[in-house]
Amino acid sequence: MKIALLGNPNTGKSSVFNLITGLRQQVGNFPGVTVEKKTGTLQIDGNTHTLIDFPGTYSLYPRSKDEQVVYSVLSDENADDYPEVVVVVVDQSNLERNLFLFSQIYDLGLPTILVLNMTDLAQRNGLSVDTDKLKSFFPAAHIVSTNARVGMGKERLMTAIADMAQAVPERRTPIPLCPIDDVTCQEQEAATRYTFLHQVIDSSLSRIDHEKKAAVSSLDRLFVHPIFGYIIFAAILFIVFQFIFAFAVIPMDLIDTGFAEFAGWLSLSMPNGVFSDLICQGIIPGIGGVLVFVPQIALLFFFISILEETGYLSRVVFIMDRLMRPLGLNGKSIVPLMSSVACAIPGVMATRTIADWKERMITILVAPLMSCSARIPVYTLLIALVIPKTTILGIFNLQGLVLFGLYTLGLVAALLVAVILKIILKSRDKGFLMLELPSFKSPRWGNVGITVWEKVKVFIFDAGKVILAISILLWALATYGPSESMKKNIALAKKESKELHLSEAETNQRVASAKMESSYIGHLGHFIEPVIKPLGYDWKIGISLITSFAAREVFVGSLSTIYSVNETDNVNKRLIDKMRDEKRANGSKVYTLAAGASLMVFYVFAMQCMATLAVVKRETNSWKWPLIQIGFMGALAYFGALITFNLLS
Amino acid sequence: MTAKLSEIKNGNCATVTSIVDSSIRLKMMEMGLLPGKAVTVLFRAPLGDPIAIDVNGFILSLRLDEASLILVEEPSLAIA
Predict the structure, then answer these.
(1) Sign of the C-alpha dihedral computed for residues A632, A636, A642 and A645 taken in this order
(2) CA of B45 vs chain A CAs: smallest distance (Å)
(3) pTM
(4) Beta strand pairing status for B70-73 and A36-44?
(5) Is A434 within 8 Å of B26 when comparing Cβ atoms?
(6) pLDDT at A411
(7) Any CB–CB contact under 8 A between B40 and chain A?
(8) Which of A96, A620, A639, B7 could staple A625 via S-S, CB 3.0–4.6 A?
(9) How many CB atoms lie within 10 A of CB A514?
(10) Chain B contacts of A92, Cβ < 8 Å?
(11) Are B61 and A186 inside 8 Å of each other by CB?
(12) ipTM of the complex
């Protein structure tokens, strides 16, 4: 039996979903659209039923793309997901508005179960619902009350579903919906429906505390305070990022070294050859490259879903909306942008909550301009290389100032690009906020855990495929090359090493360096040299730019290979020494202040992250937007670096 | 006294009389904002925009330009 789960946002719909399906859930998309579809299964009396979680909505008539799914599925009996039974979750403490959606669904004539959720909150507000009276208005509905947050009412709901499965009630004659574009009809329907619902509420809802006036809670007073509101938000952000930077590093290092050691061990125990190389140097590091992002994504969504569950996040949206609007953004853009300081991948994934198409696209497009944590290794290497360790005005460390400047540059670029996109992008409708500020609740850890697990799963299986494919491609390009010149160069490197009496490890590094130089990527590096020369780069940097398209931090690793730096030593220090000594053909230094600064600017702007591209492709459901993104960020990077180089040299 | 909802001071109550015809009128009606509904303005964001109102026990936030589409009747001062 196919069961649809519907309800307003903030009614505890996902708690009900988790309550009766547990972890037997799958995330997919509704056919033809990028709206997330959660499906769960439940077993009753040996029969398996499918529960489909629809996006939370206030009405069957959609106001965002997400909500359109509800109308299109429920108005079309031939739709794949057309249900046999409908479960509507309503918040008892807010009955009238919740019954609006319920009565629309009831009128469709489908067998309907009405779940009166949040019993505790209703009681606290002095409300009690007379279910018999309520049923007299909706005689065909099964009414069940639950408090899904604490797991209360599971049995009752399961029994109601079992009863329906035993003997599926006849379909009643539906009262037809208004056409989707006939607003006048829909407005009339809304007015009539609320008149009817007034009667329903009058007879079935009793208010114990009649004089209870709407009061502003003290938490709201604090959270939207013109000074404390922002201080609290800043403090929460600070704590969240402290956690992410302090704790995500540990599992990330474990994944990094674990995969490297595993690949090393495997390559020793497998017979030499192309196949072994493909697995040990292409596939395994590729998988490692996907998994290494998981700790950050998981931690970030852990915090975001706590903030969301408690109701705090909507207050942040409330106080930030006015500040973000001139930029073509939305109060809801703040979470994706802040997340992108850790990593743009969860940032882009977090834009789902923005209902307005234009505001969401702008947020997705500018999010990767925020300096993410993968840029840190690149920034620190380059700063140590070309920025002197001096203090300015006696207190400011110049290196620190430059690092701060790079972060600011990214932020300013993101905001400026947002303003430009606001003018360029044509919007389908005017953006609006109209947001419910839900009451404060303590988070449900089960829901938090499930959200984190889902986000991680989507990332690994959807974006992971693209990342893996590109890593294998990059590996192949860095390993293979025109065989004649490759052989010649390797032989030359071996001969030189012998003449210089180098140790075996040093010889291997020389060979690796020679191999990379004569590989296809090496040729590509030479090939693009004329293009990047005006930025102050040579072909060696060119190679690193290409390989670090996989992920920015690969830049450091590639340079280490090219300059044959032993990885077991203090890589950064030895690499910096080598880079300092690096000379051009005419004897001048390669890494001058101008070239170093130009590289920094390049990395602030360039879309050097295939994982983010894969996620943008997934979230926008087309290659158009990631390509636009790589285009404008590439142009910013190129011209930004060009200007920097020319100003400083 | 007729006014726009955006002009009502924090803490004051007002009754909706009509909503200007616009693309979001339907959505406002679906949220329960219909003629005759009494709402209370609860608080405003730091720059005065958006505002938060109480509709039947839930808090709804509206941008100022959205709230200005809602025409309301403010009860005279005598009622406290």
Answers:
(1) negative
(2) 5
(3) 0.83
(4) unpaired
(5) no
(6) 94
(7) yes
(8) A620
(9) 22
(10) none
(11) no
(12) 0.92
